[in-house]
Design a protein that fits this description.
By secondary structure, this protein is mostly helical. Helix content is 72%, strand content 0%. It has a single domain, classed as Vanadium-containing Chloroperoxidase, domain 1 (Up-down Bundle), CATH 1.20.144. The longest helix has 28 residues.
């Protein structure tokens, strides 16, 4: 899979613009719609969300590595599963770190108070930088689940695995695209994330995967 720095920069800027536009013009209205119709969509979204849970890919990667290392020795396949493991771990850690830094409220908070929209650091405009930092840490410790909306961890995993599959099997894109779309849409249906959170997760997942791949490229360039 070939890509240039210019392409990566253009992709990053494009996604950041979409995230900003989504925050101001899309996120809240979409979230309120699915909150209003949660009896119709929420259970479907929660079930489909399994597609974006990283433990399946991490567990599968570990089993694949062990099998092709000790049972049926195959360096190429072992490295492929190793890449899958690293991709999921690295993208997951990046997602967790950004969740803490960004501190965005979940969409389901809107069900009880529509004013709970945005980020922790914007809730107290009169605070100093240090006061905002203290407030963010305190609120994250007390209400961790509430303020970890951006980026979506499921979207990060979905984008990471999608990019991984596109690296290995680019001609099968017609399979990976609909699966990725369903996995991403599930998080909005479940009232767990805003559209902008999904876009942020896609950005993190793609960049993290390409970064890990660039570090392991020599293991694959003769075989992929």
């Amino acid at each position: 899979m070939k890509y240039s720095k210019i392409q990566l920069i253009a992709f990053t800027l494009f996604m950041l613009i979409l995230i900003v536009l989504s925050y101001f013009y899309v996120d809240k209205d979409v979230a309120l719609y699915f909150i209003k119709h949660e009896q119709t969509y929420q259970n479907i979204g929660r079930r489909l969300s399994m597609l974006g849970e990283s433990q399946w890919y991490i567990g599968g990667a570990i089993l694949g590595m062990l099998y092709f290392s000790y049972i049926q020795s195959n360096r190429l396949y072992r490295n492929r599963f190793l890449l899958l493991l690293y991709v999921n771990i690295f993208s997951g850690l990046m997602s967790i770190l950004l969740k803490i830094i960004i501190g965005r409220a979940r969409p389901w908070a809107l069900e009880h108070n529509e004013n709970v929209y945005g980020f922790l650091f914007t809730q107290n405009e009169h605070f100093t930088w240090l006061q905002n930092l203290h407030y963010q840490v305190t609120m994250l410790l007390k209400h961790t689940a509430l303020y970890e909306s951006m980026p979506s961890g499921h979207a990060t995993t979905t984008a990471a695995v999608f990019t991984y599959m596109m690296i290995l099997f680019p001609k099968k894109f017609y399979i990976w695209v609909p699966i990725a779309f369903i996995s991403l849409a599930a998080r909005v249906l479940a009232d767990a994330h805003y559209v902008g959170d999904l876009l942020a997760g896609i950005l993190v997942g793609v960049l993290a995967t390409l970064f890990v791949y660039s570090k392991m490229k020599k293991k694959f360039e003769n075989n992929i």
